Amino acid sequence: MKDSVKLLGCLVDVGILLGLIVGCGQQRAVGTDGVDESSAPTVTMPSPAEVAGVTLNGIYDDAITLVVGEYEGEPFEPEGASRPRIHLITELMPHGDLNGDGVDEVVALVSENSGGTGHFLYVIPLTTIDGVVQQLGSALVGDRVNIRSVDVKDGTIVMQTIEGGPGDAACCPTHKGTRVWTMQDGVLTETVSEIEGPFSLADLAGPEWVLKAFNNKETAPETPEVTLRFDLEENKFVGSSGCNNYFGSVESSESRKLTIGPLAGTMMMCPPEVMDVETRYLKALGGAEGYGFNLGRLAINYPGSEEYGVLLFEAREVEATE
Question: What is the pTM for the complete model shown?
Answer without folding.
Answer: 0.81
